[in-house]
Amino acid sequence: MLEVLAGIGRNGRTGGYQRDAWSPPELELREWFRQEADARGMDRHEDRNGNLWAWWGDPDRKPGVVTGSHLDSVREGGAFDGPLGVVSAFHAVDALRASGFTPSRPLGIVSFSDEEGARFGVPCVGSRLLTGILPPERARGLTGDDGVTLAEVMRAQGRDPAALGRDRETLARVSVFVELHIEQGRALTAPVGVAAAIWPHGRWRFDFHGTADHAGTTALADRNDPTLRYAQAVLSAREVAEKLGVVATFGKVLIQPNNANAIPSLVSAWLDARGADEDAVRRLVAELSEGQEVVCESWTPEVAFPAALRDRVAAIAGDPAPILPTGAGHDAGILASAGIPAAMLFVRNPTGVSHSPAEFAEPGDCAAGVTALAAVLADLCGE
Ligand code: GLV
Ligand code: MN
Ligand code: MN
Ligand code: MN
Questions:
Q1: Domain end call among 300, 328, 355
Q2: Both 35 and 142 in a single domain?
Q3: What ipTM was estimated for this complex?
Q4: For the chain, how many structural domains are there in total?
Q5: SUPFAM superfamilies from the xrefs (predicted)?
Q6: 201: CA distance to ligand 3 center in Å?
Q7: Mind listing the pLDDT tens digit for each residue in 262-307?
Q8: Closest alpha carbon to 198 in 355, 329, 307
Q9: How many C-beta neighbours within 10 Å does residue 24 have?
Q10: CB-defined site of ligand 1, < 6 Å
Q11: CA of 162 to the centre of ligand 4 (A)
Q12: pTM above 0.90, yes or no
């Protein structure tokens, strides 16, 4: 299945993926999801926040065990972040059916909409809307770099942006959620691991204003050049992050109007800051924000996955599978923070590289992930 998906949204020059929410490649992936669900005779539906669901059994009779992840990607992302969890979910259903297993609870597969926030800036839009963590009026107004809002994009795709928001009916169908994901750091040496917690993390937009002027005729002393304050912020972020033991990244920057021969009028730069210690992350942001125009675009407090479920999953997935924290954000974390029992399985990533075309997992480890996921689902569905 990953091979089928490999050509969708791929940049042939770099090997990276561009699967922004609601973009043509992402719509193609949605169609793939529908076809896989239909091929298995699963009941499928898209909820009012754009998340895709497929069911083996009737979740309105009894809440189900749900697995899945997301199909969108960061820009120039890898093949595994997201799709591995959805593909593994379908494979796990196949494995359970082939073994003659009959679930005593419905089993669901979900693909959450816009997990990465590559287009509209806020990550996990689908799961945040579903759980009510993201107010629908804020979601409707989220605007991409092209000036187009999420509401406009959804309307153009035949969806109703007025229907966005907390969805109790869909949530009531979920008794427990297990997300399988490629490990994104260098910490996992076994084929399969289990998530302990997700670091607190957030995104902040810094706007550095300057005065546009001619690059050749404006003396250095007469300039109000915002790139200098931006450069200083990047260097400070590194210094303060080292001091406080957190990580900080200015991974996205927009310069206006973006002429080689003019002093810019505005630099907008996005800070992504994370760490095990929430106070330290907040202190970093406070230090960097002093005297600056800063807007918090998203904030996700620490999520510790429920210990009993985590240990149960680890016992089934290994002997037991290693349990590790992560600095990456996930829909499972959003569901857990909304009070839905959730757990995560990680599949080893030999280089630890992610959010890059170099992201990789060995086929044998992916198969081990499916085996572990199927066993976990069987255990949870047996109740
Ligand atoms: C998403 O993968 C994130 O952690 O930023
Ligand atoms: Mn990601
Ligand atoms: Mn992901
Ligand atoms: Mn993520």
A1: 300
A2: yes
A3: 0.90
A4: 2
A5: Bacterial exopeptidase dimerisation domain, Zn-dependent exopeptidases
A6: 14
A7: 999 999 999 999 999 999 999 999 999 999 999 999 999 999 999 9
A8: 329
A9: 12
A10: 116, 123, 328-329
A11: 26
A12: yes
